[in-house]
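Why does residue order matter? Because the sequence determines the fold. Keep that principle in mind as you read this record.
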Amino acid sequence: MTPPKSRGRLRTQLWATGHLLRSRMMVPMGPRKVAGMAKIFRSYGPHATTGFALSANRRPDGIGLVDERGTLTWREIQVRAEALAVGLAGLGDQPPTSVAILCRNHRGFVDAFLAAGKLGVPGLLLNTGFSAPQLADVLEREASTLIVYDEEFAGLVAEARGRIPGLAEVLAWVDEPDAVQGATVDGLIESHRGQQPPVTRPGRVVLLTSGTTGTPKGANRSGGGPAELAAMLERIPWQGEETVVVAAPTFHAWGMGQMVIAATMACTIVMRRRFDPEATLALADEHRATGIAVVPVMLERIMDLPGEVLDKYRLDSVRFVTASGSRMRGESVIAFMDRFGDKVYNSYNATEAGQISIAVPADLRHASDTAGRPVTGTVVRLVDDDGRDVQVGEVGRIVLRGASEFDGYTTGDTKASLDGFMVSGDVGRMDADGRLYVVGRDDDMIVSGGENVYPVEVEKAIGELSEVREVVVVGVDDEKFGQRLAAYVVPTQPDGVDADAVRTHVRSRLAGYKVPRDVVLLDELPRNASGKVVVRDLPGVG
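Structure:
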């Protein structure tokens, strides 16, 4: 795919401003509020936490957050963050060098996320699915000196504590506050309410890669500013000052990004600590939400609900359901749109690169497995092993250049590049209409007996069986062939499908060397908290 010509700075600014105005991200304001917003930008710049401050200036008494403990206005959110920042700074002998956050979706996550920014130190977003060794590895590598965590993770933190001398601890969500000993988020807020930390440039947000095959890495990325936001608004019908249910985990790049976009547009953010498919539908209807942010497995779980349950909800106020983080089951996407309307938008993003492409409902109707077209400002190329562009329809490595900049991993490593384009690590193909299809990871390719196989095409064939609910295909070591294909299948009903039926179906669709020799039936696939399959936890793989 040949990169388009650059827009030019003035033309890009005019284009971005148009989309920001149409979405009501930018609205008419009085001189005092305009001056307040200008001061915020001078103080904080285009940071992930800036949107919360802008909304506190724009709609101080508007509802900013709804969770299981009630509502908070935008002003209250800022007051809490300022008080917590002062409280965290006073813990221990020295101010924290970073704030590690191990929280589910609730106000405590937002409190800690914003407080880290106000302290000018990195906010390290930790996966709530970590094991104790993974948690200790990341805390040690990132030299974290303070962790804010939910009470349910106390056991994990206790196991990791021995490797992190002097680690300060603050509890966020607790079920019985009166029984807690030690510092809590709510306690520090009440003790320092009305106090403000010194104004400083906010620290970076450290996002972790998924770590489904290895140790998660911390990624630093500079935002693309208004142009990156406008590229998303060009495709997805967000509107300012509405309500959005953020079901995707906010420690993950996708969930955090959706939360930040909502805050920047002064949209009320509705959260729930643990995802529940029916509860998500209920929240959207109850709060008349216009948007829902999920990871793909959440959409699948919603459509796995019985028909009589789905019939209870209309989602007539919802204009968009945004999903990202892993490949979506095509039948779930189509089933959702058939029932609730053409409202699903599938985003292909990367922790290191931000948004890459977006599939709008028409794209998904055309091909439910497409990642859509590259967003404005992002150029995607598909290249072979020698760096040459491949032909339309051929599989190649995905390389890209976008609005945001990847500033490297916290380990000091960085992504490979090719002629100024970031090597994503994914492989895909492009159809004649410019739609991108992500085939898999570059290192996912299975070489079995000298033949190259990408798991996604085998997964797609097996997924056609009505008796199959979920499937993942991987390569396992084989003395004769180097690797052999193994399919891990979750049936829709116990004993609803057998291994021979799976192999027979694949053989009728694909070449013989693509038929998995191993077919393992499971009750469920091992997934992390963001819904991605953890390959190393599959039987016979780890």
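The CA atoms of residues 23 and 238 lie 6 Å apart.
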